[in-house]
Write a structure and sequence with these properties.
Helix content: 40-55%
Strand content: under 5%
Strand order of the largest sheet: 1-2
CATH topology of one domain: DNA polymerase, domain 1
CATH architecture of one domain: Orthogonal Bundle
Oligomer: single chain
Shape: flat
């Protein structure tokens, strides 16, 4: 192979690698682009967060009236938001900038427990707890 062909092949390889990295970054940006500014969002927008309902959203708004959030971690000061819930909310939280979530975010099914219908099924010959035969 000549030097010019080697350079052309390396250039083509770099170009393909760069384009694929750019495409990957755009996909990641779409997912991470869903943010809620906890200092400016309405209660309805806060309720778009996963596992956050109207009551918790109202508590966030009330806490914000007392004192603005300076860090997302301060959200754990709100009743009903513990470490586990905060961990699932963290990718969607911001204390500055615009709110970009416009629909309820659902967590993936892999993080949920087994379906309640399967867990509540009992064998037909099961004896209730505390009752002997």
């Amino acid at each position: 192979m000549t030097a010019s062909r080697i350079r052309a092949a390396c250039l083509a390889l770099l170009l393909c690698t760069g384009l694929s990295a750019l495409a990957f970054a755009e996909d990641a940006e779409k997912e991470s682009g869903k943010k809620v500014n906890i200092n400016t969002a309405t209660a309805a927008e806060l309720a778009y967060l996963p596992r956050v309902g109207a009551k918790v959203a109202d508590r966030i708004v009330e806490r914000r009236k007392e004192k603005r959030f300076t860090r997302p971690e301060e959200l754990m000061e709100v009743k009903g938001i513990g470490e586990k819930l905060y961990a699932s909310l963290k990718p969607y939280l911001a204390v500055s900038g615009p709110t970009t979530i416009h629909a309820k975010v659902r967590l993936s099914t892999s993080s949920r427990r087994s379906s309640p219908s399967a867990a509540s099924e009992k064998p037909t010959n099961a004896v209730p707890a505390g009752k002997g035969r």
